[in-house]
Amino acid sequence: MLVDILRHGQPQGGEVLRGRVDHPLADEGWRQMYASTGINPAQASLESAPWTRVICSPLQRCRQFAEKISADLKLPLSVEPDWQEIDYGIWDGMPVAQWRKEAAEQFKAFRQDMTALSPPQGESFVCFRDRVLTVWHQLSTTLSADEHVLLITHGGVMRVILPTVLGIPLNQTGVLHIPFACLSRIEVGRRDDQPFSTLLFHNSSLSARLGTRPGSEVP
143: helix, coil or strand? Predict the structure, then answer.
């Protein structure tokens, strides 16, 4: 049972902090996501991709690509709100340089105590973590043996799931590079009647692994 987790590509809107801010994908973001998944948009078909279904966050930077490829590949699509990015409250949409100054003290404390990160008028990290781990557990324990899911979500979500699989403390995830259109694959199942997850690859182009060339066209 496999789950490919894809971070959205570059959105429009410039260098701002995006939680619930709902910017659409930039042209470069479309190109990045096609390149990571190895899909040629001019030749997309069910035979050109390995997945059995697609799941995505409802925010445009995830949903736009999910809707396009699920239609082209004729795959079932589920749009699920629990896969959204953390709600940054009044920080949402703030220029990144400004946000780094305003949030610096919280992040310094966060490295020692996860409960310290709580964006003003937003979602605390602990609530965000619990939301993501709950929906991840639901997904990973209900997959059937022949399923291969493509989950299109956000960098913050990946910074909860991947460290959990790897056993890394969630407030020490700076070692993980998760760029736009980052693609990671996780195997999930049961071993000795206990659930287990294994990271098979991280930040890798699926086209490179399949030995194919990604399409260069942008819709």
Answer: coil
Contact yes or no for 180/29 (Cβ under 8 A): yes
Cα–Cα separations (whole angstroms), residue 154 to 46, 115, 128, 147, 209? 25, 21, 12, 22, 23
102, 105, 106, 112: CA torsion to nearest 10 = 160
Render pLDDT for 49-69 as a digit per residue (tens, 0 to 9). Answer: 889 999 999 999 999 999 999
CB atoms within 10 A of CB 104: 10
Helix axes 125-142, 155-166, angle to 10 degrees: 70
| b/e map 153-178, b = 16+ CB within 10 Å | bbbbbbbbbbbbbeeeebbebeebeb
Joined tokens for residue 97: 């340089």
Q: What is the pTM of this model?
A: 0.90
- What average pLDDT does range 68-80 have in this prediction? 95
Query: pLDDT confidence of 47, banded at 50, 70, 90?
Result: low
DSSP string, 119-138: -TTS--HHHHHHHHHHHHHH
Which SS3 state, helix, strand or coil, does residue 201 take? strand
% of residues, the chain, pLDDT over 90:
76
